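Hi R.,

Here are the chain sequences for the assembly we discussed:
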Amino acid sequence: MTMTAPIASVIDDLRALLGDRVVTNDAVRGQHGHDESSFPDRLPDAVVFPVETAEVAQVVRICARHGVPIVPFGAGTSVEGHVLPTRGGVTVDLSRMDRVLEVHADDLDVRVQPGIRRVALNEHLARYGLFFSVDPGADASLGGMASTGASGTTTVRYGTMRDNVLALEVVLANGEVVRTGTRARKSSAGYDLTHLFIGAEGTLGIITELTLKVRGIPEQIAAAVCVFPSMAAGVEAAISIVQQGIPVARCEFIDALTMTMINRHAGLDGPEAPTLFFEFHGSPAAVADQAEAVRAIVDAYGAGEFQWATTTEARNRLWRARHQLYFAAIRSRPGSRAIATDVCVPVSRLAECVDATAADLEAFGFPVAIAGHVGDGNFHTVLLIDPDNPDDRARGREFTNRLTLRALEMGGTCTGEHGIGIGKREALEREAGPAAIALMRAIKQAFDPQGLLNPDKVLINGPLPEA
Amino acid sequence: MTMTAPIASVIDDLRALLGDRVVTNDAVRGQHGHDESSFPDRLPDAVVFPVETAEVAQVVRICARHGVPIVPFGAGTSVEGHVLPTRGGVTVDLSRMDRVLEVHADDLDVRVQPGIRRVALNEHLARYGLFFSVDPGADASLGGMASTGASGTTTVRYGTMRDNVLALEVVLANGEVVRTGTRARKSSAGYDLTHLFIGAEGTLGIITELTLKVRGIPEQIAAAVCVFPSMAAGVEAAISIVQQGIPVARCEFIDALTMTMINRHAGLDGPEAPTLFFEFHGSPAAVADQAEAVRAIVDAYGAGEFQWATTTEARNRLWRARHQLYFAAIRSRPGSRAIATDVCVPVSRLAECVDATAADLEAFGFPVAIAGHVGDGNFHTVLLIDPDNPDDRARGREFTNRLTLRALEMGGTCTGEHGIGIGKREALEREAGPAAIALMRAIKQAFDPQGLLNPDKVLINGPLPEA
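And here is the predicted structure of the full complex:
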C-alpha cells in the first residue's frame, strides 16, 4: 500500500458530498486519534460524519479511487488501538447513524444503525419491555461491539455479540453494499458472512446496520454480592456454579485491590475483599431457585452473607461500580495509561491461570488487580504504565506475552472479548498458527485487495509507520 | 475445472497410501452415489476410508495433484444432494474416523472425530452425565452436521451447530491442516474461521475433528404431547410460548395427516390431529414451572389434555416417532422420493406462512403434511414425487420456488437447517443477492482455487454434468 495518496483531492470530493460534515480541524482529528488503549495517538487526515448508508458507500468509493485508508469509528472505547489511523486517511465516524430503525417485539429482534450506543439502545427497548443482553461495560456503539466481537458481564447466560447478531448491512471496500443474514432465527444458507464480519474490526467492510436478537426483561431481576476469604475461594466458587449449570445471568469476580480502587474512584465503601457479583433473572420461583443453589455452593467456599440489590437503582449502582473498574485502575495512578489483558481459558484451568498470573504480576512489580467474567473463563488485569517510559512498555509486553502463552497452553485464547487491534497481532499469530493466518490473509485480500480498510488491524502488514 | 483427470493414476497413488481402504466396486460406489434427497445418483470413481487426519490430508494432496474432485461423506443423511459426486472423483468416507478423543466434563466440552454419529456420541457422553444437544432427527455424523449447519428439535433451547462448535480441525484444498478456535468459551481472536467452515458443506475444506460444547443431563426431563382443534391453533400456541420466553427444550408441531403417516409407519395409535410435542428440562421445580406456564397458553388455544412421557423409554418412543416423519412420508407412497422443504421465518409470520403453504400444497395437489420446529419459525413439508416423472419434479420445483419467495418476503430464509447442496443454489442466489454471492465466490476461490472440494455444492458453477 502506498501512502502518497492525494488526500487534498479526496477531501475536496468528500466536501462536495458531505459539506461541513467533513472535518479537518485539530480538535476533532485529535478526538479520533486514540481509543482507550495506551498506544500513541495517530491522527486521521479528515473525519467524516455520514448520516446514511449511501453516504458511507460514497465515502468509501472516493477513498478507494484515491487509495486512501478508511477507519470506521464508533464510540472509541476499544482497548487495543482498533480505531487508530496508523496510516492517516479518513476516519468514518458513525455516531450520527444512531437510530433504532425497527423494533419487532413479537419476534424479539431489532434493526439499528451502527452508531447507537448500548445504554441508549436499552433505554429505547425498555419501552417495549425488552433489553439487549450484551454488556461490555463501556457505553460502546453497537457497530463497534459487533466489529470487536465484544461480550461482557451477561455472556455467561446470554452469549456474545456473535450469538446475538442475526443480520448485517456492510459497505465493502469497493463501495458496494451487502446484506448478510435474515430475520429468521437460524439459517443454513451458504457461507456465514455475518460471523465473518463480526470481530473483523472493520478490516473487511464497514457495518452500517445490525439486526439484533433482544429479550424480554425478566419478570424478576436480583443482584447480590458476597465476599470470600481468598481469591482462590472466590474463583473456585464461580467455577463450581458454572459447572453445575446454574443459569446465573451474571457472575463476576473482583479481587481485593480492585475493590479498593473502585471504592476510591466511585466514593463507595464496599468491603475490600475478593468478591463475586451475581445477577439472577427469571420468574420469582426461578430466581429463588438459582439463588438458593448458588448460596449452597458459595457457603462451601467460606463466603460471607449475600448483600442483595433488588431495586433497579441499587442494581444500577452496583454494576456501574463494576463497570468503572478500568477507569478506577487508571485513576489510581495519575498520568498512567493502561494495558488491559484479556485471556480466556477453559473454566477447569481458570483458578490455576489466575493464580499463576497473580504471582507474575507480583514478580513484575505490577499491582495484583484481577477481575473477570469468571463464568466464561475470561479475566482481566490492568497494567498501569507510564506512556513515556519505554521500560514500562517492555515490561508490560513481556508480562502479556507470558500470560498469552499460559492461556494458549491451557487451551485458551489471547482475547476473550477485547479483540486484536494493533496490540494483539503477534499473539493472534501465535494462537492461530501459520495455516489459519494464511486463510485470514486470503480473506482480507479477497475482500479488500487495496488494503485500505482499517489498515494494520488484526493482521500484521509490515512495520507500523512511525507516529 | 476439467474432468479429463487421470483417475487411474490417482487410484494407484491412493492404493499405495491406503491399500484396500480404497474401494472401486459398484456396491460401495453406489452407496456413496446418493443421499436422502430425490436427486438421481452420481457415482464416485473411488471411495476411500481414511482412519486419521494425516491420511485425509494425503488423499487431498493426491487428488489436488491430479485435479480430481473430492467429496467428503459422513452418514449420507443430507437431503439436498450434498454428497453427490456430480463430477466423479474420490469420495472420502469419514465413518472410520468415529472416535471420541477427549471428554472434558469439567469444562463441558468434548473433542471428537467427524465420523461419529449423534446417537453413538450421546451414548458415550451419558456415562459422564452429559449430552450433546443438537438433534436433527437423522442419526447423522457430527462432521456432516457441522458442514450442513444442522439444527433440529432442541434448537429452540440450545441452539444450532453454529452455537455448539467451539473449534475445528480442517484439511484444506492444498492438503494443509488448519486448526480454528480453542477450548475457551469465547474469543475475539481474528476472523471467525470456525463459523466459515460450519455450513460450508465441505466446499472449503474437510472437517477432521470437532470440539463441541456439551451439557449436563438435566435433573428432570419430561415430555408431553397435546392436540389442537386446528393447525392454526397449534401453531399459534407454539408462537405464544416462544414469545413469552418460556425456556422449553423442545416444541414441535405435527399436523393431522403427518400424525396419520407416523402412526401407520411406526405402528402407533396416537390421535390423528394437529399436535404439539414438548420437552421440559431442568430442576423438578423449573420443569413444573415451565409446564404450568405452557399449560395456561395451550388451554387458551383449545388444546386437549397433556399426555405425559416421563420415563426415558416413553420419551424415546415419542421422539423416535417424531424423527421417523420423513421416512413415514416416503413410505406412505411406495416408489416415491421426497423433496423436503425447510423455510424458516420470524415467528410472528409463522402462522401466516404455514397457512399460505397449506393452501398452496392443496392447490398443487400435494398432501397437506406440515411439521416443524415451530419455536424457531422453521417448518417442513415433504413433497412426494415419482422420480421418473418430469412433471412431478417441475411441480415440486414450482411449489418450492413459491415457498422460498414467501419466506424471503417475510424476512426469512430458504433453509433453516437442511443447507443448500445442489437443490437450493438458485434459492440461495435469490436470498443472498449478487453482492453476498460475489463474496462467497471470492471465499471459495481463495480457499479452493482449483474448485475440487465438493464441486457444485452451495454455489452454481456452470450447468451440472449429465448423470
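The CA atoms of residues 20 and 48 of chain A lie 9 Å apart. The domain at 328-409 of chain A is CATH 3.30.70.2740 (Alpha-Beta Plaits).

Let me know if anything looks off.

Best,
T.
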